[in-house]
Amino acid sequence: MRLIILGPPGAGKGTQAERLAAHRGIPHISTGDIFRANIKNETPLGLQVKDILASGGYVTDEITNQIVADRLAEPDAAQGFLLDGYPRTLAQVDALDDYLAGQGLSLDAVIELTVDQDEIVQRILKRAQTSGRADDTEEIIRERQDIYQRETAPLAQRYADRGLLRQVDGLGSMDEVEARIGAVLDTVGDEQPA
Q1: Is 13 designated active site?
Q2: Has 88 been annotated as catalytic?
Q3: Most-buried pick from 13, 26, 47, 52 (CB within 10 A)?
Q4: For 58-71, how does the pLDDT look when each residue is reduced to its tens digit (9 = 90+)?
């Protein structure tokens, strides 16, 4: 399957992405992980990204699209993949569509973990207390949630309009959420018009 997973900070997206990819036997492709690995290994891309991030900027769509295209061209992604953290903009949605169309492929589904904002705030605050992350104040957490909603709503709507979006309740145990995602994905393709 060729999948995307969306979800606000604290929704458990990373955990579910890892579980889903392992269960489906497809690579979990996280743009954040790719950027961090390149920075750590001081690759040309890593040095470029490090400079951008150090100056408080955003990695451009052009750079991000290229690293994703390069990663999707690797042999382990030939039978499917799970994208996490990409696309983040409508321009990235278009670039991904163009890349896949050029390969004769298309997405199977976009999973969006939905969560109650107050529940997420409490979850992250609890995590901050146990991990000592002083930057996770309620105000900052709520701002991150608002940014996510503003930036992701157009993407979710685009995929909903195309019949690809599958919303899954992200609250509950890891196993419960994983079971919900699996049940939703088991129906992909069943609702195609005759």
Answers
A1: yes
A2: yes
A3: 13
A4: 788 999 999 899 89
